[in-house]
From TrEMBL:
Catalytic reaction(s) noted: D-glucono-1,5-lactone + H2O = D-gluconate + H(+)
EC number: 3.1.1.17
Sequence ranges assigned to domain SMP-30/Gluconolactonase/LRE-like region in this UniProt record: 13-261
Protein name, as recorded: Regucalcin
GO MF term list: calcium ion binding; enzyme regulator activity; gluconolactonase activity
Listed GO biological process terms: L-ascorbic acid biosynthetic process
Length: 297
Protein backbone atom coordinates (compact mmCIF):
# COMPACT_ATOMS: atom_id res chain seq x y z
CA UNK A 1 0.00 0.00 0.00
CA UNK A 2 1.13 3.54 -0.76
CA UNK A 3 0.29 6.57 1.41
CA UNK A 4 0.84 9.93 -0.31
CA UNK A 5 -0.02 13.49 0.74
CA UNK A 6 -2.10 15.08 -2.04
CA UNK A 7 -2.98 18.50 -0.60
CA UNK A 8 -0.75 21.50 -0.18
CA UNK A 9 -3.13 22.87 2.45
CA UNK A 10 -2.71 21.58 6.01
CA UNK A 11 -5.89 21.59 8.11
CA UNK A 12 -6.18 22.34 11.80
CA UNK A 13 -8.84 19.56 11.89
CA UNK A 14 -9.62 18.07 8.49
CA UNK A 15 -12.87 16.06 8.57
CA UNK A 16 -15.93 14.85 6.66
CA UNK A 17 -14.44 13.94 3.24
CA UNK A 18 -16.89 13.39 0.37
CA UNK A 19 -15.86 12.59 -3.20
CA UNK A 20 -17.65 14.36 -6.07
CA UNK A 21 -17.44 12.06 -9.14
CA UNK A 22 -18.86 14.70 -11.49
CA UNK A 23 -15.91 17.05 -11.06
CA UNK A 24 -13.39 14.52 -9.71
CA UNK A 25 -12.70 16.61 -6.63
CA UNK A 26 -12.84 16.00 -2.89
CA UNK A 27 -14.94 18.05 -0.51
CA UNK A 28 -14.00 18.14 3.16
CA UNK A 29 -14.03 20.58 6.08
CA UNK A 30 -11.51 22.24 8.37
CA UNK A 31 -13.82 22.03 11.35
CA UNK A 32 -12.83 24.65 13.92
CA UNK A 33 -11.48 27.04 11.29
CA UNK A 34 -14.95 27.04 9.71
CA UNK A 35 -13.81 26.25 6.17
CA UNK A 36 -15.59 24.08 3.61
CA UNK A 37 -12.84 22.87 1.28
CA UNK A 38 -12.69 21.48 -2.26
CA UNK A 39 -9.47 19.73 -3.22
CA UNK A 40 -8.30 18.92 -6.72
CA UNK A 41 -6.03 15.91 -6.09
CA UNK A 42 -4.48 16.31 -9.54
CA UNK A 43 -2.97 19.68 -8.60
CA UNK A 44 -2.96 19.61 -4.81
CA UNK A 45 -4.80 22.94 -4.75
CA UNK A 46 -7.72 23.58 -2.40
CA UNK A 47 -10.54 26.11 -2.77
CA UNK A 48 -12.32 27.18 0.41
CA UNK A 49 -15.49 28.88 1.59
CA UNK A 50 -15.20 30.32 5.07
CA UNK A 51 -18.10 30.38 7.54
CA UNK A 52 -18.37 31.75 11.05
CA UNK A 53 -18.70 28.60 13.12
CA UNK A 54 -17.72 24.91 13.32
CA UNK A 55 -18.16 22.88 10.14
CA UNK A 56 -18.16 19.09 10.42
CA UNK A 57 -19.38 17.50 7.18
CA UNK A 58 -20.22 18.38 3.58
CA UNK A 59 -22.56 16.42 1.26
CA UNK A 60 -23.69 17.54 -2.22
CA UNK A 61 -27.39 17.58 -3.16
CA UNK A 62 -28.53 14.99 -5.67
CA UNK A 63 -30.62 17.54 -7.56
CA UNK A 64 -27.80 20.08 -7.81
CA UNK A 65 -24.31 18.99 -6.69
CA UNK A 66 -23.13 22.62 -6.62
CA UNK A 67 -25.34 22.98 -3.53
CA UNK A 68 -23.93 21.41 -0.38
CA UNK A 69 -25.51 20.21 2.84
CA UNK A 70 -23.25 21.30 5.70
CA UNK A 71 -23.25 21.90 9.43
CA UNK A 72 -22.42 25.16 11.13
CA UNK A 73 -22.10 24.50 14.87
CA UNK A 74 -25.77 23.95 15.85
CA UNK A 75 -27.30 24.52 12.41
CA UNK A 76 -27.70 22.46 9.24
CA UNK A 77 -27.38 24.67 6.18
CA UNK A 78 -27.50 24.60 2.39
CA UNK A 79 -24.33 26.16 0.97
CA UNK A 80 -23.74 27.40 -2.56
CA UNK A 81 -20.00 26.76 -2.90
CA UNK A 82 -19.70 29.02 -5.93
CA UNK A 83 -21.16 32.10 -4.23
CA UNK A 84 -20.41 31.31 -0.58
CA UNK A 85 -24.02 32.04 0.36
CA UNK A 86 -25.86 29.71 2.73
CA UNK A 87 -29.31 29.33 4.25
CA UNK A 88 -30.37 27.74 7.52
CA UNK A 89 -32.48 24.59 7.06
CA UNK A 90 -32.88 23.52 10.68
CA UNK A 91 -31.11 23.85 14.02
CA UNK A 92 -30.89 22.18 17.37
CA UNK A 93 -33.26 23.16 20.15
CA UNK A 94 -33.39 24.80 22.59
CA UNK A 95 -31.66 27.85 21.16
CA UNK A 96 -29.38 28.21 24.20
CA UNK A 97 -28.26 24.57 24.19
CA UNK A 98 -24.60 23.55 24.46
CA UNK A 99 -24.77 20.68 21.99
CA UNK A 100 -23.46 20.89 18.44
CA UNK A 101 -23.38 18.71 15.36
CA UNK A 102 -20.47 16.49 14.42
CA UNK A 103 -20.05 13.89 11.65
CA UNK A 104 -22.81 13.06 9.18
CA UNK A 105 -23.57 10.88 6.16
CA UNK A 106 -26.51 9.83 3.98
CA UNK A 107 -28.05 6.38 3.77
CA UNK A 108 -28.75 4.80 0.38
CA UNK A 109 -32.06 6.67 0.08
CA UNK A 110 -30.39 10.03 0.59
CA UNK A 111 -31.53 10.62 4.19
CA UNK A 112 -28.97 12.39 6.36
CA UNK A 113 -27.79 10.79 9.60
CA UNK A 114 -25.83 12.98 11.97
CA UNK A 115 -24.94 13.12 15.64
CA UNK A 116 -24.20 15.66 18.31
CA UNK A 117 -21.95 16.15 21.30
CA UNK A 118 -21.77 18.44 24.31
CA UNK A 119 -18.15 19.52 24.82
CA UNK A 120 -16.59 18.16 28.04
CA UNK A 121 -19.77 16.33 29.06
CA UNK A 122 -20.46 12.60 28.88
CA UNK A 123 -23.50 10.99 27.26
CA UNK A 124 -25.26 14.29 26.48
CA UNK A 125 -25.18 13.86 22.70
CA UNK A 126 -27.71 12.22 20.37
CA UNK A 127 -27.97 10.54 16.99
CA UNK A 128 -30.46 12.06 14.55
CA UNK A 129 -32.02 11.38 11.16
CA UNK A 130 -32.78 14.36 8.90
CA UNK A 131 -35.61 13.65 6.47
CA UNK A 132 -36.15 15.43 3.12
CA UNK A 133 -38.50 17.93 4.78
CA UNK A 134 -35.59 18.89 7.09
CA UNK A 135 -37.25 17.41 10.15
CA UNK A 136 -34.79 16.08 12.75
CA UNK A 137 -35.76 12.82 14.43
CA UNK A 138 -33.80 11.57 17.47
CA UNK A 139 -32.74 7.95 17.03
CA UNK A 140 -30.32 7.29 19.91
CA UNK A 141 -29.16 9.05 23.06
CA UNK A 142 -26.37 8.84 25.66
CA UNK A 143 -23.76 9.66 23.01
CA UNK A 144 -20.54 11.32 24.16
CA UNK A 145 -18.70 12.16 20.91
CA UNK A 146 -20.75 11.29 17.83
CA UNK A 147 -18.60 10.36 14.84
CA UNK A 148 -18.20 7.99 11.86
CA UNK A 149 -21.13 6.33 10.08
CA UNK A 150 -21.48 3.57 7.47
CA UNK A 151 -24.04 1.09 6.13
CA UNK A 152 -23.52 -2.51 5.09
CA UNK A 153 -23.65 -3.40 1.39
CA UNK A 154 -27.12 -4.94 1.79
CA UNK A 155 -28.27 -1.94 3.89
CA UNK A 156 -29.32 -4.23 6.73
CA UNK A 157 -26.67 -2.99 9.16
CA UNK A 158 -25.75 0.52 10.26
CA UNK A 159 -22.39 1.21 11.91
CA UNK A 160 -21.79 4.20 14.16
CA UNK A 161 -18.84 5.50 16.18
CA UNK A 162 -18.83 7.10 19.63
CA UNK A 163 -15.21 8.26 19.74
CA UNK A 164 -14.99 9.24 23.38
CA UNK A 165 -16.24 5.82 24.46
CA UNK A 166 -13.88 4.16 21.91
CA UNK A 167 -16.82 2.13 20.62
CA UNK A 168 -18.07 1.21 17.15
CA UNK A 169 -21.76 0.32 17.41
CA UNK A 170 -23.91 -1.72 15.05
CA UNK A 171 -27.66 -1.42 14.50
CA UNK A 172 -30.17 -3.42 12.50
CA UNK A 173 -31.25 -1.10 9.70
CA UNK A 174 -34.51 -0.80 7.75
CA UNK A 175 -33.81 1.12 4.55
CA UNK A 176 -37.48 1.40 3.64
CA UNK A 177 -38.46 3.57 6.61
CA UNK A 178 -35.01 4.72 7.74
CA UNK A 179 -35.09 3.17 11.20
CA UNK A 180 -32.22 1.75 13.25
CA UNK A 181 -32.79 -0.73 16.08
CA UNK A 182 -31.09 -3.36 18.23
CA UNK A 183 -28.03 -1.26 19.09
CA UNK A 184 -25.00 -3.40 19.97
CA UNK A 185 -21.28 -2.96 20.55
CA UNK A 186 -19.33 -4.11 17.49
CA UNK A 187 -15.84 -3.19 18.74
CA UNK A 188 -14.74 -1.61 22.01
CA UNK A 189 -11.16 -0.38 21.67
CA UNK A 190 -10.74 -0.40 25.45
CA UNK A 191 -11.55 -4.09 25.81
CA UNK A 192 -9.35 -5.56 23.08
CA UNK A 193 -5.55 -5.66 23.40
CA UNK A 194 -4.96 -5.20 19.65
CA UNK A 195 -6.83 -1.87 19.75
CA UNK A 196 -5.47 -0.37 22.98
CA UNK A 197 -2.62 1.65 21.43
CA UNK A 198 -4.57 2.81 18.39
CA UNK A 199 -6.14 5.99 19.75
CA UNK A 200 -9.90 6.34 19.26
CA UNK A 201 -12.16 5.44 16.31
CA UNK A 202 -13.12 8.53 14.30
CA UNK A 203 -14.45 8.75 10.73
CA UNK A 204 -15.38 5.61 8.83
CA UNK A 205 -16.32 4.21 5.42
CA UNK A 206 -17.05 0.79 3.90
CA UNK A 207 -15.72 -0.98 0.80
CA UNK A 208 -17.49 -3.15 -1.79
CA UNK A 209 -16.55 -6.27 0.17
CA UNK A 210 -18.39 -4.99 3.23
CA UNK A 211 -15.26 -4.27 5.25
CA UNK A 212 -15.02 -1.13 7.39
CA UNK A 213 -12.19 1.38 7.12
CA UNK A 214 -11.81 3.30 10.37
CA UNK A 215 -9.62 6.34 10.99
CA UNK A 216 -7.84 6.22 14.36
CA UNK A 217 -7.41 9.65 15.94
CA UNK A 218 -4.26 9.63 18.05
CA UNK A 219 -3.32 6.23 16.62
CA UNK A 220 -1.43 7.26 13.45
CA UNK A 221 -3.34 4.72 11.38
CA UNK A 222 -6.31 3.60 9.34
CA UNK A 223 -7.78 0.16 10.03
CA UNK A 224 -9.63 -2.24 7.76
CA UNK A 225 -12.02 -4.22 9.95
CA UNK A 226 -14.17 -7.24 9.26
CA UNK A 227 -17.53 -6.54 10.94
CA UNK A 228 -18.41 -10.24 10.90
CA UNK A 229 -15.33 -11.47 12.78
CA UNK A 230 -14.65 -8.08 14.45
CA UNK A 231 -10.96 -8.44 13.61
CA UNK A 232 -8.32 -6.16 12.08
CA UNK A 233 -7.56 -7.18 8.49
CA UNK A 234 -5.08 -4.41 7.64
CA UNK A 235 -3.42 -1.52 9.46
CA UNK A 236 -2.23 1.40 7.33
CA UNK A 237 0.31 3.64 9.07
CA UNK A 238 0.45 7.41 8.56
CA UNK A 239 3.21 9.96 9.15
CA UNK A 240 0.98 11.88 11.55
CA UNK A 241 -0.81 10.99 14.75
CA UNK A 242 -4.29 12.38 14.23
CA UNK A 243 -6.03 10.52 11.40
CA UNK A 244 -9.61 11.75 11.25
CA UNK A 245 -11.73 10.33 8.43
CA UNK A 246 -11.78 8.64 5.04
CA UNK A 247 -13.78 8.03 1.87
CA UNK A 248 -13.28 6.32 -1.47
CA UNK A 249 -12.75 8.40 -4.58
CA UNK A 250 -10.96 8.65 -7.91
CA UNK A 251 -12.31 7.70 -11.38
CA UNK A 252 -12.66 4.06 -10.30
CA UNK A 253 -13.41 4.69 -6.60
CA UNK A 254 -10.25 2.79 -5.71
CA UNK A 255 -8.38 5.61 -3.97
CA UNK A 256 -8.89 6.08 -0.25
CA UNK A 257 -8.77 9.77 0.60
CA UNK A 258 -7.90 10.34 4.24
CA UNK A 259 -8.12 13.57 6.24
CA UNK A 260 -5.82 14.37 9.15
CA UNK A 261 -5.28 17.10 11.75
CA UNK A 262 -2.45 19.13 13.21
CA UNK A 263 -4.72 20.22 16.06
CA UNK A 264 -3.70 19.20 19.59
CA UNK A 265 -0.16 18.30 18.57
CA UNK A 266 2.32 19.14 21.35
CA UNK A 267 4.88 21.74 20.34
CA UNK A 268 7.73 19.24 20.53
CA UNK A 269 5.98 16.97 17.99
CA UNK A 270 5.07 19.53 15.33
CA UNK A 271 8.49 19.46 13.67
CA UNK A 272 8.39 15.67 13.47
CA UNK A 273 4.97 15.73 11.74
CA UNK A 274 5.31 18.24 8.88
CA UNK A 275 2.47 16.57 6.95
CA UNK A 276 -0.06 16.69 9.79
CA UNK A 277 -3.29 18.22 8.49
CA UNK A 278 -2.76 17.12 4.89
CA UNK A 279 -5.18 15.03 2.86
CA UNK A 280 -3.62 11.68 1.92
CA UNK A 281 -4.35 9.20 -0.85
CA UNK A 282 -4.01 5.48 -0.07
CA UNK A 283 -3.56 3.24 -3.10
CA UNK A 284 -2.68 -0.41 -3.65
CA UNK A 285 -5.10 -1.65 -0.97
CA UNK A 286 -6.86 -4.06 -3.33
CA UNK A 287 -10.47 -2.90 -3.07
CA UNK A 288 -12.75 0.03 -3.91
CA UNK A 289 -15.77 1.82 -2.58
CA UNK A 290 -19.36 2.34 -3.64
CA UNK A 291 -20.52 5.53 -5.39
CA UNK A 292 -20.95 8.31 -2.82
CA UNK A 293 -24.53 8.93 -1.70
CA UNK A 294 -25.92 12.43 -2.16
CA UNK A 295 -28.60 14.18 -0.10
CA UNK A 296 -32.16 13.98 -1.41
CA UNK A 297 -34.54 16.81 -0.50
Amino acid sequence: MNVTAVSERKSDLGEGPHWDPLIQKLYYVDAFVGDVCRLDPATGLTETVHLDGITTFVIPYRTDPSKLLITLTRQIRKLDFNTGESEVLTELTPADGKDRFNDGKCDNRGRLWTGTLVPSEEEKGHLYRLDPNYTLTQVADKVTLSNGLAWSIDNRKFYYVDSEKKIIHSFDYNLEDGTASNQQVLVNYSERDEFKDLGVPDGMTIDIEGKLWVACYGGSCLLRLDPETRTILHKVDFPCKNVTSCCFGGPHLDILYVTTAKRELPEDEKDSEPLAGAVFAVTGHGTRGQPPVLFVE
